[in-house]
Amino acid sequence: GQQLNQSPQSMFIQEGEDVSMNCTSSSIFNTWLWYKQDPGEGPVLLIALYKAGELTSNGRLTAQFGITRKDSFLNISASIPSDVGIYFCAGRTSANQAGTALIFGKGTTLSVSS
Amino acid sequence: KAGVTQTPRYLIKTRGQQVTLSCSPISGHRSVSWYQQTPGQGLQFLFEYFSETQRNKGNFPGRFSGRQFSNSRSEMNVSTLELGDSALYLCASSQTLNTGELFFGEGSRLTVL
Asked: Which residues numbered 35-94 in B keep a CB inside 8 Å of some CB on A?
């Protein structure tokens, strides 16, 4: 089935550093989303992208919908301790455009030391 | 506005038993989706309901089933439990079908012994 390759798998950074993570697929996606999951919680939507080339920010977070429609990137600037968690990319293809079924990456675990 | 509520939060079952998990979506949300989260496979789509109808189904065996009620609340059932069914089951709601913008509950953690 369709898979999303998310990298890196984990990151250990110092507070104040910038973070970049990405997601790639062999299939074309019509929607890319980024979610964050804290321990004991469900994922929370950070950013949604709907057009190829779209660049969208949410505070210190910036995400881009790749031109090829097969990739997406998430950047976090000036990281703080509360950025700790697991970040998931997710996508929807035209195959399930009529529904909300998402395909998720395996996640990037972010650790921030102060 | 109350979030997505899932019950029970934790449960332990033995192989062969069956389990029912419940989900109350955000008020006004008519679409409910279910996902299974495991360390090995990550988040995988189970099924999606809108207006009491199953609109989409993931690649899971028939032991996994669900339904949605007229008040948009949803239940999922797993019969003949296997050890591999141990997972966090997440319910998510959204206002419409045509969106990936989901609001997730905290999940029901199922352990099968």
From this structure: 35, 42-45, 48, 50, 55-56, 58-59, 90, 92, 94
